[in-house]
User: Fold these one by one.
Assistant:
Number 1:
Amino acid sequence: MAGREILARWREVGAWWEGEVPREVLRWRDHRGRVHEDITPLSRLVSGVPPVTLDVDPYAHREDVLLRPRKTRDEKVRRANGMIREPVYPQYRSGATDYTLLHAVSGYSFGRSVMFATEIARRAAQVGIPSALLADRMSLAGVVEFARDARQCGVKPLIGTTIEMVEGGDLVLVAMTPAGYRSLSHLVTHCHLRHPRLYPLGSRALLGEYTQDVLVLTGGSAGWVDRPLQAGNLQEAEDRLNQLVKLYGRERVFVQVERTFEPWEWNCSYRLLQLAEALGVTPVAGGPVTHAELDQFPAQDVALCSATLATVEELFGRKPTRHPDQPQPRPRPLRALNAERYLCPPAEMLTRYQDRPDLVANTHRVAEMCDDDLLPRRTELPPMAADESQALRAAVMSGAALRHSNPTKALHRRLNGELDRIIRLGFAGHFLMAADLVRWAGDQGILLSGRGSVVDCAVAYCLGISRIDAFTHRLHFDRFLPDDGSKRPDIDMDFEAHRRDDVRNYMIHQYGVDHVATVAAFGAYGTRGILREVGKALGLPTDAIGFIAKRVHGGLTRSAWRATSANAPS
């Protein structure tokens, strides 16, 4: 239409929980200066991506079950008994168009995504994306499994992290080399250690300490550069972008131009492109990707409500986003206005950026600047003896004479067989280290016991690591350490709860504070927990939530859900 000036264009899902139809709003000004709004209803939340044509688990109700792995308890035992089907890895095949997926987020960023880290690479390969970046918030927890699956799918894994800045807004930092990965590891660690627990933050000074082999993306519409632009402060945005150029160098700064149909996007994208051109930095297409398909948005929205302690009727949750002692920037809703942050196929990305296809092509520059393999190799333990093999044999035979009143030839055959395998696979030092810890704990009167697969090891019993005699009980050593080395030995030991700090302090004294780490565990919801969180987000009465959750055991099929919900209190 002649004389029409477009002011904004956005999409919104509205009250999806009430069946409201998503819509697109176009705001424009005519030649007389009058402002108009055109509202167009959109289709329901169903992705246009064709369904996955793979062999389907008969117990699953979704076709993408093999792309989206299911978390199970006792996975080792279930796999050994054939109760877990091996995943199918789609293979990337180059097409007429493709792009690098920048800024994918996994479920390790609690509430920010409903995708598994392993799922991202499989989805990328399925739709024809040759390389993908995982950038979880203040975390590198998912990068190992993401990189492993990406290689299986023929997708190049890019590793990064999303850092929330003190002033508000995010930056995405990407490792270019193994040294860059170390930089990110140190940076994430210090973001946590230098701020109150559960409230990690980054700062310009901290970023400046760890810039080696790291490149930076501006973070999309929630980014550190975008936020002042959205507030109309062009000078502040330019100053922040200049600071990134000084920290990382012009060639390692990329301006993310996100197009997910948000109200401020029309003007903000124009100004971002102006800034990028003025400062000579590369603009790229993309923002955070939080779910795989359009119809997964309700699950993503509920997950975010759960993480922020909000209901679907609220923009802000009851959980504080900052510690009281930290700076408090102007609050910004974390919930998305629409469902557009899903994993777009290349053809759809070109449609979104049809006026600037160079932004899609520029995404490959990020991939080209990063090495194919960034993760560190196996950690080398400090030597425990001049000849670890001989020291381990001597310690085991001494322990065998102490713990077996009448050592037999069969026992010695078992011990020698285990020792040969342990030494051949390079784990003699692991056992000597564990034996040293057991010896010290015994001297201090600290109770301990090995658990898990280590009880299948007769060597562990002789060293005092396990209290179960694997030889007498005919336990199978292969479960602990297969002959082909496909599994590393898992030496789990439990110590008295009130003496665990003493054990940790001994390790720190022996090996140094920078060489002792605590293993983190991530909790996952079971079926009942999911039902309770969904119920809270939807604002259901507590009695109704409890009624439904208590009638679920193990899992929940669609038919069982219908039967249970039909009998729930009104």
Note: The chain has 19 helices and twelve strands.
Number 2:
Amino acid sequence: MLAPLHAPRTTTRPGTQKRPVPPANPATVATRAAASPAGIRRKLSVWAPNTALLDRCSDWIAVFDVEGQVLYANPSWREGLDYASADAPPLRLEDVVAPEELPRWQARLKAADLPAGWEPTHWTWRSRAGRFVTMEAQVCRQPAGGPGSRWVAVCVCPRPPRDATPPHRESEAVLQVVELHAPVGVFETDPQGRLVRANGRWRQIASLEHLSEPRGAWWQMVGPEDRDRVTAEWQSALKHGHEFRSQFRVNTGHTLERFSHTCISRLHGPDGALRGFVGVSEDITEQLRFKRQQEEAKAELEKRVGQRTCQLEMANRELAQFAHVVAHDLKAPLRAVNNLAEWLGRDYLDRLEPEGRRLLSLLQQRVQHMHNLIEGVLAYTRLGQMEEAEAEVDVHRLVTGILAILAPPPHITIRLPLLLPCVRGGAERLRHVLQNLLENAIKFMDKPQGLVTLTATRLDGAWEFAVADNGPGIAPRYHSLVFEMFEQLPTSRQAGGTGIGLALVKRIVESRGGQVQLQSREGAGALFSFTWPDQPKPRLGTDPGGEPMI
């Protein structure tokens, strides 16, 4: 009971003296009393245009007449429904009530037999932006004047409103659409994992389509072979609070094997408490079957590749052996012919006529050409058999040694850069490439003052070498033929070429992963360029890491 406004209140503690307490502010006391739920009800019960106390109330308060016109709404109500701005239009019941509740409230306003006084109910408001908010409220209908002038006051109870955006009914409609049309199984359980609802697709996946509303634990769908493992994973997810994901065989009850991938997440209520779980199950039987077929096909392909590789290696060995045997058998009579030609020239040269001497010289040239051809074929076949270790190759030293062997004539100038790089690779293979290109440039030079230039350019992950000359050049129609085995230009035949050198160059460069190019036209010299990667190309059957490849 409040103390009289004119008398100060005092408080007394044991062992202490009485101390006067300042009197309460009369306006504050009156405001608090009027702003309490009971005070609001008393104020509305004697409705009057004076709404100063209601305007300061944090609860939502609105007054309607029997036609649904809003007679009064406090600022809390207007702000909550987005009608606090100055341009807010005059409001009626159909503007602020959910459409499905409008007939009920229209009938409630006009009902003549409703008892006077406050009664609890619920109210779903619709904001100006289309947002729905459901609240518990108390409603009072009172006469105000003559007959037919009744009005209804709505006083929202002083408790936090429950925001229903999107409203529960809309969530239910969305869930029904998902249950009917989702291509995956959807189910909901209580906090103990017992089924609350499940759509038709989940019942089909779980082999429970004969039950319209299955009950019991969700893991009844797990096959006996995997149930212990899955339930252990489920208990671990519950204990550590993480999402449950598992793949298992379905308990089909017969010999047909089916697999499911299931994901389950926690479902919390508005107060943060665990309301249950919602899960999604997907039938992955066809996916696993397709994956198994892919693995089997891959294994079969790897097996065939291995067999073909063994057959290819065996064929290469047989070819190399055959080439060596043929070369040995050819070299023996060739050496005999060459010896006879030398003896004939040494012992009977002064007795031969000029034509005989020419024929003897031609015979020796043909023997030498045959010898070079055999050596070229052997070098080409050995290329696929030899494994040369990777090492640092000093290109400047390598080229200097090559030029010392070739001994270019005085009328040909060899121009080299001041510094040539060191590269990774096989020294013998790189020597074959450079020697063939430099030898061709010197051999086929037709100018009185020949010039051969070697350059090296750094690229991304490789070096590019180029050998240019001012010789006779090569017509564009022959560019694709010069790198073919045994293909020779007319000038090459005259100079004693074998048609193997450029084919050998192309094979060596491409076996490392590089490329060879020719830029030339007839009478304007030629430029042969090739790239030499820092790392060799992976061998057939392995990737860069040494693992088997398909």
Note: The chain has 15 helices and 20 strands.
Number 3:
Amino acid sequence: MDDPQTSSERHELLDSETERASRQRLFDEVLASVELVLVADGAAFWREEPDHSLVLTASRSLPHYVLDAFDRHVTGPLQSIMQRWPESPLVAVPLNDPDNPIAEEIRQVTEKEAIVGLAGVPCRVPGETLGMLVVVHRRPHPWTVRDLGLATGLAGQLATAMQNARLFQSVRSLANRLAGIHELSLRLAQLRDAPTIAQTIVAEIGRLVDCDTARLYCADAEGVLRPVAASGTFIGIESPPLEALSRPGETLPAWVAKRNEPLIIPDATHERRSIFRSTFGPESLLLVPLSYGDEVQGVLVVSRAGADRYDAEDERALSVFGRYAAQAIVNARNIDELERQHAQMERQLAAERRLLEISEQLVSTLDPRRVLEQIADTIGDVVSYDRLTIFRQDPATGAIEPVLARPEPGEAGGITTARTSLDEGLTSWVLGRGDAVCANDISEKTLAGGTQLDAALTGTLRGSGPGAAGPDATSARPHSPDEETENIIVVPLRVHGAVVGSLNLIRVGGAGAAFSEHEFEMGKLFASQASLALQNAEAHVTVATRADLDALTGLRNHGTFQRDLATLVDAGDQFSLLMLDLDFFKAFNDTFGHPAGDALLVTVAGALMGAIRQNDQAYRYGGDEFALLLRGASGKVAEEVAARVRTAVREAVLGSGIGSVETAISASVGCASWPLDGPDKASLVQAADAALYRVKRMRNEPERFVRAS
């Protein structure tokens, strides 16, 4: 199986080993020169790390236990003296002085090794100390000016070697970081959605800079920076919820985003600007903006436990990567926007195709109520909504009444009194002008009163008629946090050009649920088709109704009676039939003429309609004969209705002034009940006719009513 390392990683490792071996040879050669030119019996070199700790790097002619003793008890004091005397070329420790207060362990070591001279030589380049050369003599050695110069020069060679090593390491580190940035940027460029890009950034950023945690902040719809991805352990919590990483007030990410500048925090424990900590002790932070052009797309934050863990090179590397990451985020957002627009166009095409299908269904429906139900059931395929209400306007009084709703009143999201008042207020405005309106992000307070309506609508509406606001208008009134906002489309419904009602669509949820311009246009197109269908249906009903009614009295005619009677028989529920005939009508007609007779029949028809129950139906059977179908009525109930009808007819005729005050027109009534008096409509009519015939023969009876059974 092949080595999992890539060729570049193997090359990097080889260069590192070669460089270390070459540097070690140089150190050995310098220490050999120290022994030769300074007549020394041993030498060692300690390099100084960025945190000022000393690390043994090379030695000659000294056993390990001697070097360990020097490391513990000699190098630290020598370093302190060098820092106090930065210009001194040599710090000597005269071990042959019995009064020298050196540590007992060092005294034992020097006595065992017969070391009588110990000197420290600072390894310096201009402006910086990079290490310490320690020279050992086992016999007294007087340091001359020549020796001091030689020692300083040899120490300078060690310092130069360390400076070159650091420079080489910095260059190699930068090259490795640039290669890592290039590779990571290629990976980000292949990703297509912003969440995946964010997760990849925080997961892979450790390849560029050492970090314990990483988090990425991006601006939300309100422009507030919020964490979108994080990795690492924060105050003991592994991968806490992103919401926990947010802090109110001015934060470091917001500060960086506002200024579009990177920021290094040596120790976050002393930072007053709030940010979620990842350790309980000192913590170093590095923040860089993710900038694309002049616009900040986000802020990347990395942290390490301890103070002063990040330098300018870390900042530069992360800033370079930040620009690639910002471009990847912008590309992903652009792709997402294109996909969203493509999906929206497909939805729009689908909605338009669906509108054509719905229009065919609506136009073929001839029942006005069914048209309204189809509108409610199918508009959601074109424009989604949370609530729908269809209002009708009474042409006589102008009153507005909701006649259909989805969801139904009482259901979740159905009509409430408050919501109805909001609907009615805007509906009244629309019906008065006959223009469709789209009102986004409005509140119940905004449209609460009719007198304030016009002022409230200023700047809030997108409309189709004169005076409507522009397409990008939104509510100019601020809303309280607990105030529910709604988005409403109100489109008038017309029959023969006259506004008869409106179609109201509502979505709840503020700007995120706002109706688009296309949805508004689709709503208007749908309402136009619905209006045409409603007009056709109502025209059909008008024609059908005229065919079903008696032209003189307005009661249902004989043909309608036969149809309705058959329907009741087929339904199988109990009902009664009253057949009614006017007494002395022929004599009245002969005396006062046919116009008076027609007026009398109209008066009788009105009396019948006022005397029967709500679910009963009255018919003009023919001539001066009438029929009444009493749904659910037994023979006893029919008798009560018959008595009420006879009284109403008598009083209506007497009070009408038709003919003369002596006009004595009364009604005879025959009754038959189903199924007691006949199993089918023919036998039932025959039974009622027979009962009427019998009562007509009872000329002298005061009660002009007979039941068939």
Note: Residues 1-14, 410-420, 445-460, 465-482 have pLDDT under 50 and may be disordered.
